[in-house]
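Two records follow; treat each independently.
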Amino acid sequence: MKVLVTYFSQSGNTEKIAKAICEEAAKTSYTDLKKLEEITPDMVAKYDCIFMGSPLHSGSLAAPVKECLSVLKSTSGQQMAGFITHMAPAYPEQDMDAFEEPMKTACREKGIEYRGCFDCQGFLAEAMHEPVQKKLGIDDETWAGMVKQMTGRPNQEDVDNAKAFVSRLFA
C-alpha cells in the first residue's frame, strides 16, 4: 500500500502528529510525508491511502485544507483519514462531526473511503493567546488554566495515541 501523510501546520502541532502517523504507517507501507503546499491533485491520486492533517481555525479546518479537499481527483479504491489539532482539551462528539464533515463530503464526492479522524490538543501559538481569550470572553484566571492544560501538547501520550489510530486503521 502506498500512503501519503500530508498536513498544514503553522505552530508545529499538526506537523508533530503528522510525523508520528508517518512513522507508524511506514512500518507496514511505503509512506511519504509532505506539507500540504508540496502536493498536487495528480500526486495525491497516486496513493492508496491519504492521511490529511489540519489545525482548527475558529472551529473549522484550516482554509488551505478545505481548498485541497475541494480539488482532489476522483479515485476508486482510495482511502482517507484525517487528523486535527486544536487548543481545547476536548470537544463534544457533535462538534467533532462538524469538524470532519468537509473531509467526509470530499470523500463522498470523490469516491474515496473515509476512515475516520484523530484529534489532539495542541498548544496555541503565543501570538494568538490574547485574541483568542478576548474572542472567547474568558477571564484571566480561566484562561491561565486553559494555557496550563495545553502547555506541552501534543505530548508523548498524544503521539502514542496517533500511532494507535494508524495501527487500528491498518489492522
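The next record belongs to a different protein.
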Amino acid sequence: MSKKILVTGGLGFIGSHTVVALQEKGFEVVIIDNLSNSSLDVLGGITRITKSSPEFENVDLRDKSAVKMFFEKYSEIDAVIHFAASKAVGESVENPLLYYENNLSTLIYLLQQLKVKENAKFIFSSSCTVYGQADELPITESAPVKKAESPYGNTKQIGEEIIQDNCKVLKNLNAISLRYFNPIGAHPTAYIGELPIGTPQNLIPYITQTAVGKREELSVFGKDYPTPDGTCIRDYIHVMDLARAHVVALERLIDEEQTSNYEVFNLGTGTGNSVLEVINSFEKVSGVDLPYKIVGRREGDITAAYADTTKANEVLKWKAEKSLDDALESAWKWQKALEEKDE
C-alpha cells in the first residue's frame, strides 16, 4: 500500500514540483493550500504532468480548529512536508507580525496534531537564511546560526528550534529540516513553475517578466559588495533537483535510516553566482538583452551565501545535477508559456 503524504503549500513553487516528484515515485499526496500566494491552476498542471490528480483541501493553517478537522478526516497521513509559509525578505521587514503569525502558528498547529500520532514523519522547508552572513564559505550545516537579518529569517530559525525541542521529548516524531539555498527554474514541460502574485520578490521571475516586457527594468540592489563584480552572490539550485531531494529525505524517514530523530541538510549546488552572472547567463540562454539598473542596497540582504553540500551528497546520496543555464532556460520557457496562456 502506498504511503499518503500531506504537502502543505503544495500549490506553491517548490511544493508543486515536490508533489510531482512524489507522485512519480508512487506516493499518494494530499495538498493543503489556502491559495494566498498560489493558484488552483497549478493543480491542473500537476495532473497534466503526472496523469494523476492529488487530493486538495483549501485550508488556512492559521485556523487551529481547521487543522484539527483535517487530521480527523485524513487520519491515515504517513508524513508531512511543510512548505506553507510567507517567504519574501523585504515584505517581512515591512510586516513582521504577518510573518510570525503565518510561519510559526501554522507550524505549531501541525506539530500538535502529529504529537498524538504513533509514528510521525516531518520535513521542514527551511532556508540558508538561518546562517545570516556566514563567517566561512562554503557554508556547512555546523556553521553557527546567527542573529537573523530579517523577520522571515527569524521565523526559519525559530521554526527549526521548535521542531528540535519537540524531537527531544517526542520519541514518536522524526524530522528533517532542509535548508535551501536559492531555488529557481521550472518543470521541463512548462506546465508548472514559479508563479508570484503581484510584483515578484525573487530575482528570476523579475528577470523573466522584464524580458517579456511586463516590467520596465530590473533593479540590481547594490554594486558595492565585497565580491568580484560588486553584486550579491547566491547559490541557485534548480527546483527539480530540490524536489528530488525532498523525496530522498522522505524515504530516509520512512526507512528509519536517521542517526537521530532530528537532522539538518543543506540543499544547494555548492557554487555561488553573482546577480550580474545570473543576468549574463539569462541573456545567453534567452537571446534577450535585459534592461537593468544599479540601485541602492536592499535591507536584509547579505553579501554572499553558497552551500557546502557534502553532507547531503554523502548521507542522502543526493546531488544537484542541473546547471544555472538549465534552470534559467526552464524559467524562460515557463514565462513564455504564461504569456501564451494570457494571449
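Discussion point: The chain has a mean pLDDT of 96. How would you locate this feature using only the C-alpha cell line?
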